[in-house]
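Section 5.1 Outputs to date
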Amino acid sequence: MTAEPVETVDGAGVQAPAEAVDAVRPGGRRDGGAGAFWRYWTASTVSRLGDQVTAVALPLIAVVTLHATALQVGLITGAAYVAWLLVGLPAGVLVRRLPLRGTQVAMDLLRGVAVASVPLAAALGVLGLPQLVVVALVVGFASVVFDVGNSTFLPTVVPKEQLTARNSLLSGSVAATDLAGPSLGGVLVQLVGGAASMLLDSVSYLASAALLGSLPRTGQPAAERTDGAGMREQIREGWRFVVRHPVIKPCVADATAVNFVCGALMTLTPVFLVRTLDAPAAAVGALLATGGLGSLLGAAATPRLVARIGTGRAVWWGAVVATAFALLLPLAGSGWGTLVFALGNAGFSAGVVVTSIVTRTHRQTRTPPELLSRVMATVRFVSWGAIPVGALAAGAAAAAWGPRTALLLFAVSSVASPAVLLASPIRRMRDLA
């Protein structure tokens, strides 16, 4: 449940970086044409499916097996995203200096090994909360580098006029895995245990690495500055572009507000469902999967919605819808009352994914190619950096007032998202320009 994860998910999504110049044909297509895109799409989808299994398994291991408190669950969630605060900005420069394909493959392998250590430790009887935090940190740092590189890929294989459709396809794929992954994860946790179920995520990273390794080899960028001052200046260039842009700036503020809430939900949802609503592991997976259903519907509707009401109106209406449905989450009860949670989760995710697709496409088409990786890194540094803050704040709030009250507080705080957009020039725009 993230706005930029949806870029994620989520987000759950891309310019011809300097590394890829040698592999790009005129018109923005990489050698291999559609085949390269579909191999990339398959790698992303397989890896994302494994991620969603782990998204259910990891907190359930902490809550059910290790009897973690809400604050401890918040530490695990925060560890997974704190890397965006620590290396998010330099990652945009580093990605331009490294061979893109090789870097992506290396990050997949690193994440696969880290995740595989959990079932290994469980089999040896030495699994503890510190290891879960370390695994979340390692996966988080590798994901920062991977995702920033990921965000520079799509415009190298599709023309500009197809970006909205391709972004919708990618977001729809993320939504589909968000729908299937948690359900599969919940069933696996119930059948084989949380630690063993994480083997699927490890295998998915290895499969992704193999598919990405089959893509056309990319070269190093043309001569880049390598001194510390050069990196600082390049980071500042990306930062200045974002904070001075009349549309990108409020969209980043919106994503930050949403991701603060998403970080809180990542912490509170497993605790709320297991301890407050007494939901079994399989039911937890199914309830989390409703977010994927909402994202899938939102992604499918985005192109038609944009054509009918314009990109500007689609952005702020998406934010309004997401907030309205978030307010349903704390009203859920046990038994059939969990359907209220399912409805709120689906509606929240649908609204977030519409806003995310439109704003991501706008950044891809309006940012100068030489700045895109740094702009994407800046956007994620700010917006994804809110996730660990929200996760830790939610853990503290749940410890003080209980999961339901904490969930209500963060649902109400989601009002900040549409408020930011409606106070910006976007409110008067039919289309983002």
